[in-house]
Design goal:
Layout lengths: L1 H22 L1 E8 L4 H14 L3 E8 L3 H13 L7 E5 L3 H7 L15 H6 L1 E2 L2 E2 L2 E13 H6 L8 H15 L7 E4 L7 H12 L5 E2 L2 E2 L3 H16 L12 H9 L3 E7 L2 H6 L9 E4 L13 E8 L6 H11 L2 H11 L12 H6 L3 H10 L9 H16 L5 H15 L2
Parallel strand pairs: 1-2, 1-3, 7-10
Antiparallel strand pairs: 3-12, 4-5, 6-10, 6-11, 6-12, 8-9
The structure holds alpha-D-glucopyranose (GLC).
Alpha-D-glucopyranose binds next to strand 12.
Length: 412
């Protein structure tokens, strides 16, 4: 009697211990380490609480878009079943879909999102990923210093040069450590946008209807502009070694007057470790001469791995993370730009990030980098050329000619 009691109790304990493990689905999501994995974690905790039996583990890696791409390319080429949901830079869904690395979301309606993201995630009529957050490039400036010299935020790159010189002269020796402009000159993904900003400003496209429409003169002018900042001492001599987060750190340390950077920088500038909190303005990036003020569209998306063994659960998670509730939470708590236009007016969002109201028109008019399955090659050609022109290894003319030749071999 006593024995059977014990056996029953032991069996009961075994069943209790085994039940959750049996019922549990574990999902693994790859989140860019630069984009608030700890804040996404909070939303995953909420998801787990609402979806008993589902556990979500975050994997992060590489703090740049290229480092992540390199890692994910290896994982996906090996048909690894380990990752279920992948946070992808907006330039990648086309490549992933063409490689068959992500699954589709049949019948998914993307019309509620900002149009640029509905477009970036629809390849050949199929929805291949869902928007995570929006992004664009902005001009950050030292509001205190511009105010001190009565200078309005520059609307052209020429005005920016003049402003940088005026502040530098006015500050005298105090400006010895102050760079006029910081931007991305290292051969990283951001340098693709570096090249495209003044190129687009001249009304030129790189690709139209899938065909290369390279304008060599516009390319020379773009490369010459960036090189002129170095030659005139507005940017530092070794700008060819500067990556996105270097620009962010130098501006945050009070060593830069103007900085070209993505939206993530804002939160850092206002943070406790910042030397410039409360002194920062954000504006549209300047135009080249009488051209348009153009920005580069950024942003990240959720794809579901074609090798995930939990397709339905993974899609359900991606849909949740891409929904308006999470977008609002990430805007308020992670300062990530929403992918829904209406959220830019949401009282809680506006309260925590007042500048988002001005960010919406920038995101809405930002231009997309070429959408092509061969984007990796396109990117490599552009960024290495920008880098070698800035390093003085090639002239802008040589750089543009080489870029054209190489791009023609990839995009006809
Ligand atoms: C930002 C953008 C992304 C871009 C990357 C380059 O994360 O959102 O689209 O490619 O920066 O570093």
């Amino acid at each position: 009697m006593r024995m059977s009691h014990l056996i029953r109790a032991a069996l009961g304990a075994c069943i209790l211990a085994a039940t959750p493990a049996l019922a549990e689905t574990q999902l693994k999501i790859f989140v860019s380490s630069q984009h608030q994995p700890d804040v996404w974690r909070k939303m995953l905790d909420a998801y787990e609480a609402e979806n008993q039996g589902v556990k979500v583990v975050i994997e992060t890696g590489g703090n740049t878009s290229e480092a992540q791409a390199q890692y994910l390319n290896t994982v996906m080429s090996a048909k690894d079943t380990n990752l279920d949901v992948l946070m992808l830079d907006v330039i990648r869904p086309a490549q992933y879909a063409a490689a068959g690395w992500t699954t589709h979301f049949p019948g998914k309606d993307l019309s509620g999102y900002l149009p640029a993201y509905a477009e970036a995630n629809t390849i050949d009529g199929e929805v291949v990923a869902l928007p995570a957050f929006a992004d664009a490039m902005f001009l950050y400036y030292r509001k205190d210093l511009l105010d001190k010299y009565g200078i309005a935020p520059p609307k052209t790159w020429e005005e920016l040069t003049a402003a940088a010189k005026k502040v530098s002269e006015g500050e005298g020796t105090a400006a010895a450590d102050l760079q006029g402009l910081s931007f991305q000159g290292k051969a990283i993904e951001g340098a693709v946008c570096t090249f495209l900003l003044p190129y687009w400003s001249q009304g030129k496209q790189l690709v139209s209807n899938g065909k290369l429409t390279f304008d060599k003169d516009a390319a020379v002018r773009s490369l010459s502009l960036w090189k002129s900042f170095v030659d005139e001492g507005v940017a530092k001599k070794n700008i060819s070694e500067v990556a996105t987060d270097d620009t962010r750190k130098e501006f945050q340390a009070g060593k830069v007057l103007f900085a070209v950077n993505w939206s993530y920088a804002w939160k850092h500038f206002q943070g406790p470790e910042s030397a410039v909190a409360g002194k920062v303005g954000v504006a549209r990036l300047p135009a080249l001469g009488s051209g348009e003020q153009s920005s580069c569209l950024g942003g990240w998306e959720f794809g579901v791995s074609a090798y995930s063994q939990h397709q339905d659960e993974a899609k359900k998670l991606a849909e949740y993370l891409s929904g308006p509730k999470v977008s609002q939470y990430m805007a308020v708590n992670g300062a990530l730009l929403p992918t829904y236009a209406g959220l830019y007016q949401d009282p809680e969002v506006v309260k925590s990030a007042p500048w988002f109201t001005e960010a919406l028109p920038v995101v809405e008019t930002a231009r997309a980098r070429p959408v092509t399955p061969r984007y990796n090659e396109v990117s490599e050609i552009i960024r290495t050329t920008v880098n070698s022109v800035l390093a003085g290894v090639k002239t802008p003319e040589e750089g543009a000619a080489e870029m054209e030749g190489r791009l023609r071999r990839v995009l006809r």
